[in-house]
Amino acid sequence: MNVDAFSVRASRVWECDSGRGAAADSPPGDTVFALVGTTEHASYTTLAQVSTPTNYVTVQVRYKTFIACDVIFSPAGLPFFEGDNRGFGYDLSPSRTIQTFSVTANPSYPTGEIGSQIQGFGFTRGYENLFGTDVTLCTPAFPICPTFCRYCLAATATPECIDQADSGLTITYASPRPAPTTVQVRIDVAGKNPCVLLAPPIDAHITLQFRQTCQAGQLGPPEWRVLSGSWHDAFPWQEMYINRTAVYLWDPCAPGRTPDPLDLFSGRGDILLIDGPSPSAINYAEWNPVP
Length: 291
Known about the structure:
single chain, mainly beta, 7-stranded antiparallel beta sheet, 5-stranded antiparallel beta sheet, 23 strands
C-alpha cells in the first residue's frame, strides 16, 4: 500500500498480552498500527503490523420481523394479507424480514465485519376475498392477538398478488471504529409491502456495539449494548438473537400493551429500545455479556 498517496495517521492500539500481566490502561505488549485516511471516493481504515491474541470471539446476530397472525386486515390496497402464523423462534420461518451477520472485536478486521451477511424478505400474499372465498373469521378466535389476528385463510384461498420486496434492508459497520476494541453495527429495516403502491413500510433502525477489552492484562469476554435512539415500529413482531439466544422480543399484543389497528401505519407508536418500554430485564444501554 502506498501510504504517501493518502493523508494518514498512525495510532497505537494496545492489545492484551497474557504473559505480561499489564494493567488494562497500560501498553501490555503487542502493537497494532491503524492507518486511517481519505481518498476522493471514500474514507477507509486498514490495519498493518497486526499482532493480536487468538481468543477474540466471533458473535452472530440475527434480527427478524414477522406477523404472528394467519391473516391481517389492511386499510389500504387489497383488504387482506397473509401473515407468518408463528411465534418467536431463532429458526422459525417465514418472516417479513431477516438479517443475519457476524462481528468480532479483533483488530485484524478493521470494521469488525467477518463472514457474509444474510438478508432477505418473505413473500407477500394479498387476497381480494370476493364472496368470502379467501378469508374467514377464525373459529375459534385466534388467541395470539384479537386486535390484529381475527381472520384465517380459507381452504379455497387464492392470492391476487404474490410478490417479494427487493430492497430496504441494510447492515452498516462503522468505519473507523468508535474505539480500538469496540465495533459498531447499524441494522436498518424499511420493508415495504410490494403489493400496495403506497403501503407504509416496516421500519426498524437499531445500532449495536460490541467490544472485548483488556482486564488485568487478559482479554475479557465479549460484551454488547444498544445505542440510544434505536427504535422500531409498534407493529409487527420483532425479535433479535445473539449467538442464537433471544435478547430482544417485541410482541405488540403482550399483556399490559394496548395495540391499535392504526399501529399498522408506519410511524405510529414507535418503540425506543432505550427510553421506551422494555420487553425484557436487559438494560440495553449498559454493556451486557454476550450469550
